[in-house]
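TICKET: design request
STATUS: open
ATTACHED STRUCTURE:
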């Protein structure tokens, strides 16, 4: 379980093929000092298990399902990634409940920069917008954000200068692909409503 509050920007040190998956080695800075083998780390919002720790590097294995259903298959050496260690009992929950299980990949459709602020519109599979409401929560590449407007196949978020500076979203260009996870409570509410019909 995660909060969607990115701890740091990491850098992909290397990517190597390990059929049927890939090994990702991430320069995780101080996060690697605190992580152990078996630790759950969200990389762009996707929960992976650390299989090797050699600070400042953490190594992960990403299987074919993960590579096909997230943007992790697009990572190359030098790619920047959002990193967050898992939530521990007693930690403050400053974002929202994020499982690290990516629902789909969305695409940045429109970006309106206004000084140091930005409004981003993402295209998404229409099935996901059924789980979204204005002022609700969404995790975009692992970043907990508040939904502004929700339409049939897209949604918008407004980003403050801090978020733009400390996450990958600041450098995201139009047509850039992001991992999306809708709010866990919205999923359960949708399931409950559908079960009553």
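STATUS: resolved
RESOLUTION: sequence designed for all positions
ATTACHED SEQUENCE:
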């Amino acid at each position: 379980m995660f909060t969607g509050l990115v701890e740091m920007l990491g850098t992909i040190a290397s990517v190597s093929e390990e059929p049927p998956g890939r090994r990702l080695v991430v320069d995780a800075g101080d996060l690697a000092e605190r992580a152990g083998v078996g630790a759950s780390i969200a990389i762009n919002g996707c929960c992976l298990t650390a299989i090797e720790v050699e600070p400042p590097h953490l190594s992960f294995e990403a299987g074919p399902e993960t590579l096909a259903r997230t943007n992790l298959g697009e990572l190359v050496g030098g790619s920047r990634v959002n990193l967050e260690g898992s939530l521990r009992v007693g930690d403050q929950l400053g974002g929202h409940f994020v499982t690290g299980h990516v629902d789909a990949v969305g695409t940045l459709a429109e970006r309106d920069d206004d000084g140091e602020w930005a409004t981003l519109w993402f295209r998404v599979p229409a099935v996901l917008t059924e789980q979204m409401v204005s002022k609700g929560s969404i995790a975009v590449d692992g970043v907990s954000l508040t939904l502004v407007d929700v339409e049939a196949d897209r949604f918008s978020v407004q980003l403050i200068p801090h978020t733009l500076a400390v996450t990958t979203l600041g450098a995201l260009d139009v047509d850039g692909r992001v991992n999306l996870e809708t709010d866990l409570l919205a999923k359960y509410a949708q399931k409950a409503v559908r079960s009553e019909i």
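CLOSING REMARK: The first strand starts at residue 8 and ends at 18. The mean pLDDT is 95.
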